[in-house]
Description:
It is built from eleven helices and 16 strands. The protein is of the alpha/beta class.
Amino acid sequence: MKAVQLIESTGPSGLRVAELPDLDPADDLVVVDLHAAGVSFPDLLQTTGSYQIVQDLPCVLGVEGAGVVRSAPRHSGLAEGQRVAVLALAGAWQQTVAVPVGYAFPLPNNVSLTAASGFVMNHLTVHLALVERARCKKGESVLVHGAAGGIGTAALHLAAALGLETIAVVSSEDKAAVAKANGATHTVLVDGFKDRVLELTGGRGVDIVLDPVGGDRFTDSLRSLATNGRALVLGFTGGEIPTVKVNRLLLKNISVVGVGWGEYIRADPSYLVKQWDDLLPLLNCGALTVPEPTLYEAAHAADALLSLSERTATGKVSLTLH
């Protein structure tokens, strides 16, 4: 089978397309022929060995994808030929994966395989953030940083499905248009966003800030929160890890909340099934829509990663594998 491997930690240039042995049916695993696989910021970090988990080389990158079940254990509830999204922690940038039961998720007919290829990581991260960590309530407001990116667009769609109002923070008018197309209630440019947020909320501030970017905007994010507000820290794509003067938390009775989805499911893998049980009804009824990603052929995986590092990507990015 065809796979995209990282053979040296030199950035995206260290990727190569390779031929690996095909996978055989397994009694305790779900074997899935992937149609496409998602590309995410941790994959970019992996190429330089700067991610928190460093793999031995050569390795297959990617952790999510979507395809068709080749074989499944009898107790899995899945059948040959069924369309599924997968979480493939051993690498998803290959044509076939084998994952544990509970790591393959049945797809409704209204979600394409290409759209589903980038669904698991971003949407389940945002679900953990809003539902579990922020304990969001219908009618609350959410400020979304990096709103035109993969995590950001997932947040806009899920927030809309949960009945939340969103303010999208973007770096350009073009990205504001992307955020609007993905369901943002309001859009604001990153320069001076705090004042604009306070204006939009009548001086109250927002209930939740969802921040995968970090950097020097974090202090103004805290200033943008209403009383009892929650700032959700998802990552640091901006490069700089901010610090917090905790007296700011006292002034408005606000919270800073970490959201580490990978660590959460490592501690409790059964939480994946709970998340899917929450999200599947929203997908089935169309309340939660999944936009199509920007697609790259596997041979151009380096270009896909460069679109993330150069911040030219909007929405989700995926690789086609068949």
